[in-house]
Amino acid sequence: MSQAHQGGDGRRRVVIVGGGFGGLACARALAGADVDVTLIDKRNHHLFQPLLYQVATAALSPADIAVPLRGVLAKAKNVRVLLGEVCGIDPDRRQVSLTDGTTVPYEQLVLATGSAYNYFAHPEWAQQAPAPKSIADARHIRASLLKAFEDAERADDAAHREALLTFVVVGGGPTGVEMAGTIAELARHTLKGNFRNIDPACAKIILVEAGPRILSAFPEELSTYAVDALRRMGVDVRLGCAVEGLDDHGLDTKAGRINARTIIWGAGIKAAQGAAWLGGTHDRNGRIPVADNMAVVGHERIFAIGDVALLEQDGAALPALAQVAQQQGTHLGRELRVLAIPRPFRYRSRGDTAVIGRHSAVYSLGKYQLKGRFAWFLWGLAHVYLLIGFDRRALVMFQWIWRYLTFERGARLID
Amino acid sequence: MSQAHQGGDGRRRVVIVGGGFGGLACARALAGADVDVTLIDKRNHHLFQPLLYQVATAALSPADIAVPLRGVLAKAKNVRVLLGEVCGIDPDRRQVSLTDGTTVPYEQLVLATGSAYNYFAHPEWAQQAPAPKSIADARHIRASLLKAFEDAERADDAAHREALLTFVVVGGGPTGVEMAGTIAELARHTLKGNFRNIDPACAKIILVEAGPRILSAFPEELSTYAVDALRRMGVDVRLGCAVEGLDDHGLDTKAGRINARTIIWGAGIKAAQGAAWLGGTHDRNGRIPVADNMAVVGHERIFAIGDVALLEQDGAALPALAQVAQQQGTHLGRELRVLAIPRPFRYRSRGDTAVIGRHSAVYSLGKYQLKGRFAWFLWGLAHVYLLIGFDRRALVMFQWIWRYLTFERGARLID
């Protein structure tokens, strides 16, 4: 072990890139160990992404679902948080380069850089169809949604007004379903009586999915249930409807043109940077193949976890879920407390869940399925529980109960 | 009354420009009257400005102190909210022009455009020394404050680190005092243990005031108390210290140079646009002189209320306070319910208050004074009460109690 790769008192240096579910879990598992840990993130906060769509739809404030990384790790005296953006890795010199020109040496490196939305061959679509990934995205979507109603209120032309009141969500995964359901609730209930020239309840909410069914990761029965539930809420669900083009006035699909001013993207993700820094192999979604102990193939000192890692278990790649990242982070952190080769990791699913709207959600774990009111209640309970900190739990729970009773949304800000 | 200045059913049209304390109070007082009311604001929300400094210092989220104007006025069916920016008034044709080229006719017009911070002869200083006036400003200040600590954590050079950890607040009015006190609490308590290379408690917080005392609108005894309280909290209060120059690295004052990366402005306000649109007289702060019934001198159909109006009572101009604007708005709204010349308004002060820090505030009403723990408690109670909506009251109260118990601040976001 060379001098540079040790801490001030000769301790082993572990560097973690990314403070999402995987990276933060890894840092927490390393707290108090005889290791110098550096957690690098370009943002100062850990974001509870599963609820980001609620920020995008004015139900919650960004700070309700974000915790400062320094605050969470304040008591882990061996963990240092570094606000910076990684731009490269030098495996030979064992150091990470930041965009400000500095380098951070490591003895062991954990890549937990997460994922971004996938616009496939059309990155330029991100302009017209933002996806809820960061707080800035969510705020942007929130402003677009609310601004569309404002503009419709003032529009003289009927066709223009209709396009303004048409909201298209692309992608029938959990995020797309949640977004479409919530926009329907916003239009039908929250904004009721707020306008004088338009009736917000007349808004068209269209969910387009290229495949034959929505929530394709769930059993078919739950997909059917979700379609029915969405349609009852007034969402126009269009299956087998791939997007072929996007512009400022709407989108072209296989099934024809849709004029819409607001388009929200939720169609598939791709791994964030990571593979490019290593110059190694990766799958078509940019994921880095790792061994069963999360070591990057060909790099014994480098590990990848979460959405950026491609780990096969029982013949299938583990999905890009918060619980996978978190379990991997915790496992790897515990293993790295001592200097040894980490033991293999095994993912134990706690089940998949998606919420559709009021009283309506789905949950699936192996053969076990749940849908409707009880699944919806459990979804809420689980998500409140998974938030970090008593204050955030209390704030989110209060706002949910308030919204449940009044249909009001506390964060209707255009800014 | 010409056709254009009436509503669809021939009703009188009242247009209110600005949805702050004055404009919103006026619109609410007109709810249900036999009048067509249009409330124009460039933002979709009413902002509870007295607590904006708490957003700037990461204690509250923007949505906690902002309510959507449409939501507040949903039940006032005769009130229409228009999201737009006014750029001119034509008193002869009785219409308001918006930046998007449309015009809004009025029979009676209420100007409630508020105020902006006054950089006196140096508008360019706004760049280096932002003032907490809008939500965007508050977010920008919050990010600057938190980023300064982040950069200090990484700084190698001692002088540079010291400049990064020096925070200067310009202006010893209530906003300046509140900002300085809160930054001190942030540095000494909230961020404790969050860093590895710096001790945030070593941050220097300097409050510079050009005049001989801070809180000059309060009795001298309370000013002295405030200085003592700030100094006990670790704030360096410098009186008679006028700012002469500002740059990216600090500021020059009459008493010498201060190197500081973060400078926050809170020194005096000037009226927002309004006088310019009318082309009439105004005082040196841009306020429009009004008669005792708030009618603009020389314009019997136009009224001005709040910070944009200059109304003398008992020989002195009424101060730029939320309670003045609110009382004027309510009075004028009630008077305008019927078509007649509004009766004179008389301001009844409920007292002035400013908070310095934990357990420390001042309150003054005529000969009656209050300071310390009890004033602080009353200040909190009054501000929670004045928020609009049960949900916001509950959210703010919960976050204050949580912060009181833990010193934690829920909105430490750099975004």
Automatic annotation (TrEMBL), chains A, B:
Domain FAD/NAD(P)-binding: start-end pairs: 13-329
Highest taxon of the lineage: Bacteria
Keywords: FAD, Flavoprotein, Membrane, NAD, Oxidoreductase, Transmembrane, Transmembrane helix
Single GO MF descriptor: NADH dehydrogenase (quinone) (non-electrogenic) activity
EC number from the UniProt entry: 1.6.5.9
Transmembrane segments: 374-390
Record field: catalytic activity: a quinone + NADH + H(+) = a quinol + NAD(+)
Family: Belongs to the NADH dehydrogenase family.
Name of protein: NADH:ubiquinone reductase (non-electrogenic)
Organism (species): Sphingomonas crocodyli
Phylogenetic classification of the source organism: Bacteria, Pseudomonadati, Pseudomonadota, Alphaproteobacteria, Sphingomonadales
